[in-house]
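task queued by scheduler; priority normal; single chain, no ligands, no partner chains; default sampling; output format set to structure tokens
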Amino acid sequence: MKPAFLIILSTIIFFSCKKDSFITSPDARLYTSADTLSFDTVFTSTGSITKSFKIFNNNNQKLRLSRVKLSGGAASPFKINVDGTSATEVNDIEINANDSIYVFVQVNVNPSGATLPFILNDSILIDYNGNKRWVQLQAYGQNAIFLKKVKLTGSVSWNNTLPYVILGGIQIDTNATLNISAGTKIFLHADAPFLVDGTLTANGTKQNPVIFSGDRLDYDYKDLPASWPGIYFRTTSKNNSFIHTIIKNAYQGIIAQDLSVTANPKLNLSQCIIDNIYDAGIIGINTNIYADNCLVSNCGSNLQLEFGGDYRFINCTVASYGNTYISHKNPVLQISNFITQGGTNYTAPLAALFRNCIFWGDGGNVEDEITANKQGTDPYSITFDHILYKAKNDVGNATFITSIKNVEPLFDSIDVFKNIFDFHFTKTSSAPAVNAGVITSFPFDLDDKLRDNKPDIGCYER
């Protein structure tokens, strides 16, 4: 028994020592979880998310890395952290047998004179047992105009030379006007509401829309809703107008509160897209909103109009599908003439017209995509004229004229798993909304296509 015991003990000691010893052969196996780390557009001076990759030692012995080095050194826009050590070069790194370590990478872009996106490159060298391996680093950087907790006064104009990045919020003062020209991009941080007490106009074109979005453009965040607070038109705000403007990925897209103090509506929306908003695409609280040829899509609540007001929506598509980011649980249109505060209902006059519009939703538990609620005796009028909508029950407190109920609109391409939402009409079949509308004073659709004498319902003309 004693010799057998010694043999077993010797075997254990042998393999234990072997596992604790270092493999020095140039044939040692080393793998990395990525050959290239790519960072999407990073604004100058704001930094990026941190990405990482792993270095695997798939040998039955320890492996010593002579060095892990950021090739560009201290001058590189990239920064690395190797197994908990932040440096441009880390030496003599031990990886246990069949184990791995993390390498974390971040990029910061220094300002330059470039106005267009530029490419930044570097690499990380992994040196072991006479072998050299590289992981490539690539980032797209762009200069921007940075504004932090700013209040605009007087008359201000923004152009498309550089994007605007808003940190900490922005306010247009009561008597101030901000005019935004075509092609301008505004990126807002998570702490940056856009507050309008004066006047805001955005004059985009089909080819060069004005864009409001979050400032995280890296892959994991570029389509994430609730990445910035939203645009708020407050009590004193007046004469606001958006043309060919895209508002996306906000917590709340647009909030307009209180009636206009001029003869014009508080907000005009023409050929605009409001998309992927976590809470509500448009909230109107006893206000005036006129919209034509707009798309309000995939929001927690697309249109939420309450406490009365004056609304006109012409040739708009309001649609929502449950998807990766937002579950479709609320009707795409909720309208009422009251608001509840402190357990008390307050009412106000309501006048609303929806003509040539689509109200549709799928992928959730919503049976009635339109709800209209009335309380009190204030003047109240809701008219749906030549619309296509989904509803199990009749919509009370409203007048319908020549409308299409519970017939699929046959949108061109909807794939919630691939995040594809094309709300044009399919070209291979007879979509029910085609030629089903009435002529209005707005001759061009969202694509700037001229409508014919039998216009389609919705924001697009086939």
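post-processing summary
- Confidence is low (pLDDT under 50) at residues 9-15.
- The longest strand covers residues 301-314.
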